[in-house]
Amino acid sequence: MDVTVVGCGYVGLVTATCLASLGHTVRGVEKDPRKLKTLQDGHCPIFEPGLAELMQENFASGALQFTDNMKEAVHEAEVVFLAVGTPPKPDGTVDMSYLEGAGKEVCDALAEDRQQCMVTIVVKSTVPAGTNRKLYGFLRSQTRAYVQVVSNPEFLREGSAVKDFLEPDRIVVGGESPEAFRMMRRLYDPIIKREETFMTMGWESAELTKYAANTMLAARISFMNEMTILCEHYGADIEDIRKGIGSDARIGPAFLRAGCGYGGSCFPKDVAAMEHISRAAGHESLFVHAIQTTNANQKKRFVDRLISKLGRPIERASIAVWGLAFKADTDDIRESPAIDVIRYLLERGAQVKATDPRAMNNMKAIFGDQVEWHGDPVSAAVETDAVALLTDWPFYSTLPFRKIAATMNQPIIFDGRNCLHRDVMRETGFQYYPMGRPAVEASLRLKARS
Length: 450
Ligand code: UGA
What we know:
By secondary structure, the protein is α/β, with parallel strands linked by helices. The chain has two domains: 2-201, NAD(P)-binding Rossmann-like Domain (Rossmann fold, 3-Layer(aba) Sandwich), CATH 3.40.50.720; 202-450, 3-Layer(aba) Sandwich (Rossmann fold). Helix content is 45%, strand content 13%. It contains 18 helices and 14 strands. The N and C termini lie far apart (73 Å).
């Protein structure tokens, strides 16, 4: 099929590339001249595992093209994706101007030469209930082109977006036009393994499905994070509880990992939006509010615990922060727990030495020379009083811990992602504080010294 994707940001580029890899002819529209040049030179402007290779392959074959000319891009299109930003406004509502602007531009371009064949406009953006219906009304009032609007929320995770797109748990399409539903079914045909995974519903249901999914996932994480308080008090292990409840088929094992809080460009924004959506419906959601409060508390709690176990005043302490990205396999620091943790540490007068394999430059833009930056965790830990581990980069579990312990003022690790092995910590001489798990308090090394 002939597909146009308006907006080649994260979602747009993954969508365009994956659809091209399924055999469709895809044109990506990008207005930012620098980004367009990068794309037209065959380079991928974002870091996402597997994306650059797939993009270059389809770009080289001609299945994927990039342009800033909307008229040319939609000339043959049967389906047009709108993958533009819907940033929150200061009052918590969503700024619709990019979506309406892009939709209007598409319709104007279509109206110039095609008024007979139907074009399906697909909204990928996460938008409050009622937005797609409004957009449809707005576009119909603006254009002579024959368009339908469907909502097709994305469920991609950074770091596994290509796999998530090509092997989806489900594809949700919201709208009112059976013809548009059929077109979407045809578009996604190669990746629909079971008919039940392709779901059609009303616009509002599709829109709320997206918020409900992210809010539910965030709620699971906040619940487990709250449980870490009880685990630490009663001497229980959150990992045992995770396995104990996750093996219940009604609960399932995913998104139950406790830690120093969730971050990223989606959960914090979408849960906050859910609270606003509830309020707009006249309902004050205590539940959704609590998910966010627990998440904020968990970051504070992480620092408070570090301060209480440090054994020396935080004002004179030097702390190594391992991991700045909001999760592994990305350079994204949006709403990363590391931002709050570093801020609290600096506010309390600590010296911070930070490192991350990918996200350091992004974090430098926030903290500049308030923080000492290191290219690797080993050098960041030298002469520090504790390590605060905040991102679960897999290579952190295989570091030379004995060597690291020897270079620190005192070997203590606070594991905000529960990703290190307690036995390894004990054997290499660390005091070790995971979250909601038994700590290693009297390490061999400290014993040997006394
Ligand atoms: C999330 C959703 O998982 C996607 O389905 C959705 O499409 C996307 O938001 C979006 O709305 O665009 P993403 O933000 O990329 O994806 O990252 P996740 O893998 O969901 O992780 C979010 C945060 O939760 C991270 O900080 C992560 O460390 C944390 N997390 C995740 C936990 O603390 N515990 C877990 O068990 C899982």
